[in-house]
C-alpha cells in the first residue's frame, strides 16, 4: 500500500510541476511528425530545450580545451609568482648587503 501511495505522490508531483504536460506535448509532436527523426531521444531532448548529441559532444570538447588552457594558465601563474618571489628575495638580499657595507640604498 505504501508503494502505491509513493507512486501517486510522485505522479501528482510530476503533474503539478508541468512535467507531464511538457512530455505529452513533445510526444504528441513526435507522433505527428511525418518524417520520424532517426533518434527519438535526441528529438525529445531538443524539444525540451537540451542540446543535441552533436552539440553536447561539441560542448564537451570545448570544455576539455578550456580546461587545458586553464591548467596552462594556472601553471604559468605559479611559475611567475615563484619568479617574483625570487626577485623580491634577491632584492632584499642585495639591499641588506648594501646597508651592511655602509653604502646608501639610494646609491648616493
Automatic annotation (TrEMBL):
UniProt keyword annotation of Cell membrane present? no
Q: Which residue windows are coiled coil?
A: none
Q: Which domain of life is it from?
A: Eukaryota
Compartments in which it is found: Nucleus
Q: Which GO terms describe its molecular function?
A: transcription coactivator activity
Predominant location category: nucleus
Q: Which UniProt keywords apply?
A: Nucleus
Q: Which GO terms describe its cellular component?
A: nucleus
Family affiliation: Belongs to the AMY1 family.
| Protein name, per record | c-Myc-binding protein
Amino acid at each position: 500500500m505504501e508503494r502505491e501511495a509513493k507512486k501517486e505522490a510522485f505522479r501528482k508531483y510530476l503533474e503539478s510541476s508541468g512535467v507531464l504536460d511538457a512530455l505529452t506535448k513533445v510526444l504528441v509532436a513526435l507522433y505527428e511528425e511525418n518524417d520520424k527523426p532517426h533518434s527519438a531521444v535526441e528529438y525529445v531532448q531538443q524539444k525540451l530545450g537540451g542540446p543535441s548529441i552533436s552539440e553536447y559532444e561539441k560542448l564537451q570538447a570545448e570544455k576539455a580545451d578550456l580546461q587545458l588552457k586553464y591548467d596552462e594558465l594556472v601553471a604559468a601563474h605559479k611559475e611567475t609568482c615563484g619568479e617574483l618571489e625570487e626577485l623580491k628575495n634577491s632584492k632584499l638580499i642585495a639591499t641588506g648587503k648594501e646597508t651592511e657595507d655602509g653604502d646608501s640604498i639610494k646609491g648616493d
